[in-house]
Amino acid sequence: MFVWPWIGIVVNLSTELKDGRYIRESGSKLRDQLAKRGFIPTRVNPLWNYQGHSGTALVEFNKDWSGFTNAMSFEKAYEVDHHGKKDWLVSEEHNLDLYGWVARANDYNSDGIIGKNLYKIRDIRTISNIMADEDRRTNKFVSNLINVIEEKKKHFVEMENKLKETSIKLSMLIKEKDKLHQAYNEVEMRRIQSSAREHFQKIFNDHEKIKLQLERQRRELEVRGKELEKCEIETKNESQKLYEEIEKNATINSSLELVANEQKKADENIMKLADEQKREKEDLHKKIIGLEKKLDAKQAVELKIKQLKGTLNVMKHVGEGDDGDLEVLKKMEDIHKI
Q: What is the pTM of this model?
């Protein structure tokens, strides 16, 4: 009896003690090594216990018969190298090489770490059981396939009948459509011809109208052209008169501008002259005031002299002493000094 799905056992894997536990690289490296030898495993699961890596691994293969063939090739290769299960059990001293075999019932039922792990993830079957299961699955698959085929055939016949019915209906519809299309084409052709005649008649009538309008516009343009020629002659004469008037006005404007400039200069000179006259008038007014002051002073002196002369004459007649005369003369001298 074999453990199923197929699984191989590899023992005597080298380990390294580190920090109190045994360690080793992952199972992918061993899986790649076995794949290079042609055994094509799907996965390698190292077995661990409380001390770490146990130095043992389980090699999984595909569930089909190709997986069984690869598993048996795996076992045969180790047996040929004297590294099969029997060699492992009878040898007292194991070198560093690996030992391997295909897991069977005695491995499944063993008490060690291998048996415990196989019991968790696998089952044991005989080849005949497996083949019987395969036959049952195959028969069931074939039966289901036959049922599916029969259903497909039945469905195909139904679809074929529906297709025939649809083809007949479609043929009838096509004939009916052709008849309707032909009738429609005849009616539509008559309508199109009638519409075309009406359209062409309308175009002809519009053309005649436009022709008459163009002829009328042509005559109007001829009359207008003659009027424009006449107006052009009059306009030319008016333009000559206007040009001469513009030249005349330009000459007058130039003269007026010169006069305005001269007037502006004269106004500026008058303003300057007025300012000068104003200043001279102010100076003359100051001089007059000064002269008036001097005249007033002179008149006051003359009046004083007259008063003194009068006093002197009075004194002469009265016959005052020489001291009085001297005092009057002294006052007169002081006044003349002023």
A: 0.42
